[in-house]
Every structure is written in C-alpha cells, then in structure tokens.
Amino acid sequence: MEKVEMKTELAKILSRIGALKFGSFKLTSGEMSPYYLDLRIVPSFPDAFRRIIDLYIELIRNDIGVDCFDRIAGIPTAGISIASIVAYLLKKPFVYVRTAERQHGRGKRVEGILLPGNRVLLIDDLITKGGSILKSAEVVRTEGGVVTDAVVLMDREENGKQKLAKDGINLHYLLTTTELARKLHNMVTITDQQLETIMKRAKKEMT
Fold it and tell me: What is the CATH class of 3-206?
C-alpha cells in the first residue's frame, strides 16, 4: 500500500473511533492544548487496533527495514501494548522501559533481555515534545543498547522530531496532526473552526 493510502486509512480509523477531541487538555509535557489525540482508546476497538498494528509494521518494513534492529522497546504506557504485538508479529524480542527504577527485585529500568550493543527500535503512539522518547532512549543506552530510530503513529508537530534528531534519533511517523485535520475536514467530520484550531497550534509550535 502506498503511504498516501495508509495516511487516508488511518484518518478514517481515527475518525470512526472518535480519537480526536476538542476542548482544553493538559499534555504529558505539562502544556495545555485545544485538542487531544486519544490513541490510548485504540486497543478498545479490536478491528481498528489490528489494522493500526498492520500500519505500524508496514511503516517499519518500508522506512527502516526489519534487519536494521535487534529488539523492539515499548515506551510507557501507550507504546507498550503496541510494541509487544508488533514485536511478536515481526518475530523480534520485546522489552519495555520503566519510567522509574524498581524498588524491588533486580531494580531494572528495562524489563526483558537487553544485551550490550543490541540495536533497539523504540515504539510509542505519538510524539509531542519528544520527552518520553528521549528519556526512554537514555535508559536503553545506559543499559548498553543502541538507539537510532523511533516509530510513532502520529506527530503532533511540536518540535519533537527536531529534538530527537539532535539526539541522533530518526523519527518515523505515519501522519501529522495537520495532515489528519485536513483529511478529516475533507471528510466533513470536523468544522472549519476545528481545522483552524489545529493549524494555528501547529504553526505556533513550529515557529
């Protein structure tokens, strides 16, 4: 499937499950946003979830190549459910990153088997400022892993991609929020005002 077709299909799926919300929302970064992409609801829709997993796999095969990494790491919390299934289907070992060191057991920050020099592909649902991915990359690198690529479904276009690039991480994504907004507007599922809300936010963050 061509990437433009993948983008359109993803937009239709997100519209169908009601993943895009408008209002006033506090993001992981601590900032307020007039819209919210709730990708955490995706696993509650099995058919949509399965198709989105397929889109992740197709993106990884086309943009990175399955021979270019040894392990897949899920970023907490939304990235874990996605990464575990993608890893299983690609027959790659799965690990996940903890936000804090365990105070019991082995006190690990990376759960699963990670060997020194392993090339680790990071997976999350979306990227805003890039903080979660950067923190996870730091943890994996501290444990001996090599991180050069991260995959997300959505890029909110708030400078996350640029921040990752400065840290030596290539970001691969299927759709940006402005692309999603334009497609949903063409489908007449969001209003002119809602389209403008997203476009203004993206323009503000990228300046």
Answer: alpha beta
